[in-house]
């Protein structure tokens, strides 16, 4: 338990050996370290001083959270980082989703390694002003499962914060795992002294997602992290009409592809239709969606991003959706959200 670190064999939800409840709380029952923690001298964690020194060169720290997995949180984190870097900000993207690190894939950095210097761990750079750190760079096999208890996850998050040398940067975007677990408590605790600008919460429109987002917002309020806003992702499917496949149901219940005939018919009789974008709702939004929830919980609503197959493709290929015109609907929606975020917090001044 050197430097007050949580031992790897500690119970889940360990309060930490420096906590006043160390060795005494319910979560300590049966832990092999219970007696040592209960009798050990208490005091401030010296690693927090090291973290504060590292974070002194970071102007703004933003947490990207979600109540559920699969709502596009990592996609939003990646595209937010791409957008800020394109605006000539110095950006760092920290992936603390220890068991599901998607960021290396979404920034086309798979297979990259972490390098060390006399200044600490060096981020992997996409561009000269966009650096990335993730456990994904440390796994010998990308398909290998990370089967860690809470204390070991928290130890790696602490190591990322105190050992990674970002240099002078404008934004540190932290992509957190879904939910409100140990990792969230740890990142807030470790960064509390240095100040967290706030959290952006990503959700989809249906109530089954919003139920958990309400918990995420309440978590932020309890730990004193400002909610910068909520983004409703996958808010309806938007796609160029010419990119759709058209099917006809046969008498046997099978589907017959008639796309070529339909496109040819439109080209001959109504060519202007080929320039249209078709939109439809995918998820049930009868409860009012994220906008209504934000009004009820008195937190900012940043906007909606449609479910765009081209954005999904950009994420799969690890590229910015702003680099070309392919992601028309989603890129423009993301741009409005990011500009709104910068203006509301006066970060573009």
UniProtKB/TrEMBL annotation:
Binds 3 [4Fe-4S] clusters per homodimer. Contains two stable clusters in the N-termini and one labile, bridging cluster between subunits of the homodimer. ATP binds at residues 67-74. Its main location: cytoplasm. Homodimer and homotetramer. Predominantly homodimeric. [4Fe-4S] cluster binds at residues 14, 28, 31, 37. SUPFAM superfamilies: P-loop containing nucleoside triphosphate hydrolases. The keyword Oxidoreductase does not apply. Residues 1-34 are annotated as: Disordered. Residues 18-32 have a biased composition (Polar residues). It is found in: Cytoplasm. Its cofactor is [4Fe-4S] cluster. It comes from Xanthoceras sorbifolium. Keywords: 4Fe-4S, ATP-binding, Cytoplasm, Iron, Iron-sulfur, Metal-binding, Nucleotide-binding. This is Cytosolic Fe-S cluster assembly factor NBP35. Coiled coil: none annotated.
């Amino acid at each position: 338990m050197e430097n007050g670190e949580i031992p790897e064999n500690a119970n889940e939800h360990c309060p930490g050996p420096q906590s006043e409840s160390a060795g005494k709380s319910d979560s300590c029952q049966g832990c092999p370290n219970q007696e040592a923690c209960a009798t050990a001298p208490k005091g401030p964690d010296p690693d927090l001083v090291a973290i504060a020194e590292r974070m002194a060169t970071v102007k703004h720290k933003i947490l990207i959270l979600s109540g559920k997995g699969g709502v596009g949180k990592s996609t939003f984190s990646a595209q937010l980082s791409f957008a800020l870097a394109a605006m000539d900000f110095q950006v760092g993207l920290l992936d603390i989703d220890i068991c599901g690190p998607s960021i290396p894939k979404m920034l086309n950095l798979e297979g990259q390694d972490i390098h060390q210097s006399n200044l600490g761990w060096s981020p992997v750079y996409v561009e000269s002003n966009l650096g990335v750190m993730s456990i994904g760079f440390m796994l010998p096999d990308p398909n290998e499962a990370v089967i860690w208890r809470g204390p070991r996850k928290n130890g790696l998050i602490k190591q990322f914060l105190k050992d990674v040398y970002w240099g002078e940067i404008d934004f540190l975007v932290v992509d957190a795992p879904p939910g409100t677990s140990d990792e969230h408590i740890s990142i807030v605790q470790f960064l509390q002294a240095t100040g967290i600008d706030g959290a952006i919460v990503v959700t989809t429109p249906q109530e089954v997602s919003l139920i958990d987002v309400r918990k995420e917002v309440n978590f932020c309020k309890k730990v004193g992290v400002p909610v910068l806003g909520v983004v409703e992702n996958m808010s309806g499917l938007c796609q160029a009409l010419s990119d759709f496949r058209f099917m006809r149901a046969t008498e046997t219940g099978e589907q017959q592809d008639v796309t070529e005939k339909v496109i040819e018919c439109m080209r001959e009789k109504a060519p202007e239709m080929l320039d249209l974008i078709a939109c439809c709702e995918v998820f049930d939004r009868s409860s009012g969606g994220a906008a209504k929830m934000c009004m009820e919980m008195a937190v900012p609503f940043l906007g909606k991003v449609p479910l765009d197959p081209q954005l999904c493709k950009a994420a799969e290929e690890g590229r910015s959706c702003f680099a070309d015109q392919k992601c028309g609907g989603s890129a423009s929606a993301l741009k409005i959200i990011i500009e709104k975020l910068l203006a509301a917090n006066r970060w573009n001044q």
